[in-house]
Amino acid sequence: MWKTLSILFVVLGSAVAAQQAADAVAPEAAGAGAFVDLPPAFAEALAQKDAGAPVVAQNWMIAAANPHAVQAGAEVLATGGTAADALVAVQVMLGLVEPQSSGLGGGAFLVWYDAASGEITTLDGRETAPLAVTPRLFQDEAGAPLKFFDAVVGGLSVGTPGTPALMAEVHARWGNRDWASLLQPAIDLAETGFAVSPRLAGLVEGDQARLVSSDVTAAYFMPEGKPVAVGDILKNPAYAETLRAFAADGAAVFYGGSIGKDIVATVRGADNPGVLAEMDLAIYRVKERAAVCAPYRDHEVCGMGPPSSGAVAVGQILGALEGYDLSAGPQDATVRRLMGDAARLAFADRGRYLADSDYVPVPVAGLLDPAYMTGQAMQLDTETALKEVAPGSPDWDHARLWADDESIELPSTSHVSIVDAAGNVASLTTTIENGFGSRLMVGGFLLNNELTDFSFRSHKDGVPIANRMEPGKRPRSSMAPTIVMKDGAPVMAVGSPGGSRIIGYVTQAIVGVIDWGLDVQQAVSVPHAVNRFGAYDLEEGTDAEKLSAPLTDMGFEVNTRALTSGLHMIAIGDDLLGGADPRREGIAFGD
Length: 591
Fold this sequence. Notes:
CATH architecture of the domain at 288-383 and 473-590: 4-Layer Sandwich
Helix content: 25-40%
Number of helices: 22
Radius of gyration: 22 Å
Largest sheet: 7 strands, antiparallel
Shape: globular
Strand content: 15-25%
CATH class of the domain at 288-383 and 473-590: Alpha Beta
Number of strands: 23
């Protein structure tokens, strides 16, 4: 079947396929709904996700947050492109059909496994603070922190975008396809239009009050003053023009060209103006950083180091759990107590120590030292919740240098996992931070509000905060794109959106496969129970709610709420198994 589907991709271009299949897929078959303009093969993939079964392939696999984006990437892979080529096609398509979560106005982290060398590389495409910022950017005249959305909406929160530079870097290093061809499917769909999905329609409906802060943004998402509805055909000719410029001139058009000038003018001309300047764009660079790997059972869990806290925190949680038997599964209260308190310990360290390592010393080695993690794990030897959790003291000269952070990180973002036919693996988490970012739109894409991932305070009780705002600095992130290795080879690629809960979502998915024996679709579908700062959040409407009473009896404060992850996971073995989070609209697809 998959061979047949790959031939289908070669024969059908994305725009033609959309038109020919418009009547072939009923909305009900799309699971999350309204993807009526996709080839029938994708209806099958959506139905398979709804049935709780992983997608199986032998040659290549992609899992991403929207079927249009998966189709764009799959067409590249089916015709011999690399995972790097597919990433470019997927990202620019996500910026069109899932604009609230990621795009050319944001930033991303990539974890890449190179099959030829056997090496893992991590690339940091995180946004940077403009050179003109001060640590008091998000404080009022009295020095008090601004309310979150008073800082978010408008130009004040916009950092230097990194995604265009990252896409160009990825393609230059590992791509083999013509650059412009990778952008063409998104150009075509931007011009012909796509059907608004239920998720996009619902988020626009809920954010009207902020979207109207910009006339350009309001005109796109609320034509004639009304929010777009499910099934509406949304065209974006401005985005098509941006992608044409990107195709012709590469990333330079964002960092020294006309689009860059438009970004700066929009940020500085907003009602809540920012300080981004053309110089900030001109000096932006993607950074290669050392991968952060932590042992778990007989695996190595590898991800992005600072300025991300993701790999360190996930590694610390797993390290603390190493000595405990978790096989009783996700509905066992003792298992959840161990996972919850291990996460609390990691988050306490995260709040004090994790920030951009180009600006502050970060004790990555100390936090992941086996002896330190063993000591932290000893605190879990109790039958009740830990009464108090405080940052630990890793073996490090500066252990008492910083105060605890107070930054806010709300859920949004998107994740892509890809394995190509050569065995290269890409795990990319990409974002504009809060849903719809700063609510400013330039050239058909939204600008980030990434600066609000910095602490709004610079000091606490006279002690500096590591994640404070500084010129050129990259704000701390929880994004955790991950590749899991075993015996020197990749066995999993996984990541998720979800703000600071990303760390818990990714940890649970890894535990789901390694400890609970689940396949990847089961692992990404497990009801969420997430602890960060003491209170246990249980996913409403799921079996996780049954944990409320026993966890309360153990001493936890318990809340029930929607926990909308967007996990996309591929298991790599004799076959490729793909799983896509049922809470969102994505699918896994392969050949």
